[in-house]
Amino acid sequence: MMDLSSATTVLSLVTLLVWNCISGAPKLQKNPTYDQLVTGIEVLHNVFSMIGLVFVDGLFDVLLSATPPPLSWFKALPLIMAGTVLAKLWAVYVIVLEMKGRRPKIYIGSGTEIEVGVRRRLYEYNKKKGRKPKYVQKAIDEGYTITHQGYLCWLPIPEPKNEAWAQLAVLALEATFSFYFWAMNSSKAFDMAHARRWSLEDFEYDGCCSHSCLLEGLLTDDLTPEQVKVKYEQMIIMRKERQIARRPIRNTQKNARYKKTPKAVHNERDRVIKERAREQKRHHCSDCDRTFGTPYELRQHLKTNEHKKVVEHWTPVTKNQKQVARNKESKRHYCHPCDKPFGSPNDLRRHERTGVHQKKVATLATRMDSPS
């Protein structure tokens, strides 16, 4: 963790934390745009000042505390209201989930909807079938209840010219707070241990965040066409590298799940899938009027002589017939008196026993014996 003693205000402290989070993140854990736009800590400070960022009271002391904040601190975070409804703001928010007899959970997210801001995002949590993050929904399914929603920081919905920078700032803040307060759903480091201040054993809650939001897409209004091109090339390379890195883990998990499932279950599932495919005629040969259970079976059928007979009125040539044709063409088994090639030595011997061949040989012998 970097030295934070130089920070005298909450803005300077948060700026240091965000810079530490972004600059120390591996390339596979962040959008390349951060490296292109955030070239120094001064850039972050100017962006935070420009967008009118406001932090919750007491955040400075909590960030420098020797121990993580208790759950009660998160449950005291405010919501900014406009009358009886949520104000139209962009914000980084915290969701608190509790269940009797279980460790509480928190989720840190952000809302950057251009019309009503974070309001639309938070309303989803109040709907029974609203769109919720994966592990928040999983916790609710297990019996957890959302007991509080509150803001860590917020800003007015930005003007169009500042949208790109404001979105970058909010996502960077979300990532920083998620790792700093460790709202991640796993104890693995995500290669972001440098962004966490306290030991994992010190937290009295678990997290529900599934990934680093530094990987999420960003607006590119402030990028030149050349920078946009470079960004997307880097994104493609990064995505491929990430897929390659995850492939062994995913294959191992998939194989483990497959092995745990009884073979009879797999066989029954395959049978049902094939029957459904045949009923719907997904893999159908219209020429032969035959339906198959899998695309592989259809491809194999299209290669068969049976199919070729129907389509091309084709007579199959066996392996033996091909060899016979080659022997005749090369005159490997050849009858010189009759000037006739044969496909096999047996055919040649049978021919030599025929009357036609013997007459031909006798005629040639007579010609050779008679005087000229």
TrEMBL record:
The keyword Cell wall biogenesis/degradation does not apply. Residues 1-24 form the signal peptide. The chain crosses the membrane at residues 47-64, 76-96. Pfam families: zf-C2H2, zf-C2H2_jaz. The keyword Zinc applies. InterPro entries: Matrin/U1-like-C_Znf_C2H2, Znf_C2H2_jaz, Znf_C2H2_sf, Znf_C2H2_type. SUPFAM superfamilies: beta-beta-alpha zinc fingers (SSF57667). One of its GO terms (molecular function) is nucleic acid binding. This is C2H2-type domain-containing protein.
